[in-house]
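ugh ok fine here u go
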Amino acid sequence: MAAPRKSAGALDSGQPLQPPLAIAIVGPEEVPGIAELARGIERLLTDRGHTVSVRLAVRTAWEPESPDATPENIAQKADLVIVLGGDGSILRTARWMGYRQTPVLGVNLGRLGFLADFSPAEIEGAIAEVMEGRFRLVEHMMFETEVIRDDQVVAADLGLNETSLLAGPPFAMIEIELFVDGELATVYRGDGLIISTPVGSTAYNLSAGGPIVRKSLEAFIFTPLNPHTLTNRTVIDAASREYCLVIPAPNEGSACVVDGRLLTLLQPGDQIRVALAKPRFHLIETSQHGYYSTLRDKLAWGGGLNRPAAPSLPESSS
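structure:
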């Protein structure tokens, strides 16, 4: 897509983005106050000479196969997508855009919001910085998950956060074999396994006790769920390798879940392949928020104490 690349070029040159840009505003319509917020942002952008399309719809409408889905994808045709909602809304939008990703500016109407970084009160300032060329366009890896049964791909999906292999009912412990580049690496015994990207490291992976990994890195994070063996710990490895997982004896309800969405129930002998995908998710950041400032704010690092501003460095005498 030529249009998003033009936006990235403006970042490199530090030059303001010249109207008219095609901008899409999307979000879940059931969130209170979202329609009013969308209209305000639309007026702000149209007053600057940009072309704006708005789509507020129920959460199920972002699934391509949903009966609520519409054939037109305004996000794929835009130079910039403003996502209203939370991290879940951004995940649904990324899935909706599929293999034609457009840069995203996230406005947080939920709780934590690691991806949806800006509050509604900050959006006017964030838009001003973006239009003046004062932003960073940060690329994040995406991944593909395939479930192979009898040498046939029976389910596949594009994801941003994680693939989870869950034991499910009757909730007995399962074994998961991990192969890396065709070599057996380890066997996990427990309630399941999370295969996360750095973007997803602050989501399900963090809740399961996994590490926080800088979002711009390209790696997979393997975090076992309630492992039966104390030596089973999180492993981080390069995203360029080939990963295959096998559950020899899954439970009746064992499942493969991608970004919180059920991909398929698993059967004995299924192979789950997770690999780096070609498209990249593009997230816009401005000077309002840095990587560690976001972590401090969202995770209340330092106990949420109000500390005095750090002293400035003395000027050089040379």
